[in-house]
Design goal:
The structure holds 2 protein chains of 2 kinds.
Chain A: H1 2-7, H2 13-67, E1 68-72, E2 83-88, E3 95-103, E4 106-113, E5 116-122, E6 127-139, E7 144-156, E8 166-174
Chain B: H1 2-7, H2 13-63, E1 74-78, E2 83-86, E3 89-92, E4 100-109, E5 118-128, E6 134-144
Antiparallel strand pairs in B: 1-4, 2-3, 4-5, 5-6
The chains are: A alpha+beta, B alpha+beta.
Chain lengths: 185, 145
């Protein structure tokens, strides 16, 4: 009877302690694996965000440049990161102006068409670096000049993403609508 | 007495092993899911970069005069490293990422019922994904005088 009681008394302190230690070791290992996976996932998410932001912005810039009827470089003294060009509209009497202005967290595109301004912020919440370089190539055979733009774009995840992710793109874009280019100031 | 001892004996080693194996099997899809996210990001990134590398060569071809050396009729040739000199400025159109390779092929078309000729420029960018999958994109465009 005495032996039976002893066997049914439950877990001892030592058994509990060993059990807890084993469980915590297993939990620590699993948690560690999860945190590695989660960190990778966050990094991937941040990279995807900046990549998609960059791709969408570059598509918009390409679309604007393909429609451009003339390209004006920023005036002397202006930020070298601002670009401004005129776009060709269906009614050629009116011209629209497209401007890109860098913000602290994104880039604002302003389309000034017939006195009405349409603004949109791309890459909202991301750090954007944008540089344009005017490219002019004389084509003596056709007595014309081909005009294009070399665009260097970089998009970076902000500090709040807790990961340093950066995605850079370089594109040579030809302005097919420009036959008689405006000379850079 | 024997019955009581049996009821209080706890888990055997085999039971614990089985439980751990079950837990491991349950965790596999969770980690696979996280891994798939990373693979997806990598694939997306490679596609965007490949598109950029192909478009840059195509834009360069559009910039050049019809009879330029770069636009000579040729079977696919390697243009992984490419420096463009346009209007006195140099532009690096090379590919920084080593997993990409790029070729350009130029053919000339002379339609019998048309006085003009034109060239077809085909750019192919190939790369290998982290999982060994070979992928490529192809861009083609027309260049005329």
């Amino acid at each position: 009877m005495k032996q039976r009681l002893a066997m049914r008394m439950g877990l001892t302190m030592v058994e509990l302690a060993i059990g807890l230690i084993i469980v915590s070791i297993i939990f620590a290992a699993v948690f560690n694996l999860f945190s590695i996976g989660l960190r990778g996932s966050n990094k991937g998410m941040a990279h995807l965000t900046i990549m998609e932001g960059a791709a969408i912005l570059l598509s918009q810039i390409e679309y604007d440049l393909l429609r451009a009827s003339s390209v004006k470089d920023p005036s002397a003294g202006a930020s070298d990161k601002d670009a401004r060009w005129e776009i060709l509209l269906e009614d050629t009497a009116n011209t629209g102006i497209i401007m890109y202005n860098l913000l602290a967290d994104g880039i604002e595109r302003t389309a000034d068409v017939a006195g009405k301004q349409h603004k949109y912020v791309y890459c909202r919440g991301l750090k954007v670096g944008l540089r344009f370089q005017h490219v002019i190539l004389p084509d003596p055979a056709n007595a014309q000049q081909k005009v294009g733009m070399w665009v260097e774009l970089s998009v970076e995840a902000p500090e709040k993403f807790a990961t340093q992710e950066k995605f850079s793109m370089k594109r040579l874009i030809i302005c097919k609508n420009i036959l008689d280019p405006v000379s850079p100031p | 007495m024997t019955l009581n001892m049996k009821q209080n004996r706890g888990f055997s080693f085999v039971e614990i092993l089985f439980a751990v194996a079950c837990l491991g099997i349950l965790l596999v899809p969770v980690f696979k899911m996280l891994g798939q996210g990373t693979t997806g990001v990598s694939r997306n990134r490679n596609e965007i970069l490949a598109q950029q590398h192909a478009s840059n060569v195509m834009s360069y071809a559009f910039f050049l005069p019809y009879d330029h050396e770069f636009l000579k009729v040729s079977p696919p040739r390697d243009v992984a490293a490419l420096e463009a000199v346009l209007g006195g400025n140099r532009f690096d159109l090379g590919m920084a990422e080593s997993q990409f390779s790029r070729t350009v092929a130029v053919s000339e078309v002379r339609p019998p019922d048309w006085k003009h000729t034109y060239k077809i420029v085909t750019v192919v960018v190939r790369w290998q994904e982290n999982n060994g999958l070979n992928r490529n994109i192809k861009l083609a465009g027309l260049v005329s005088r």
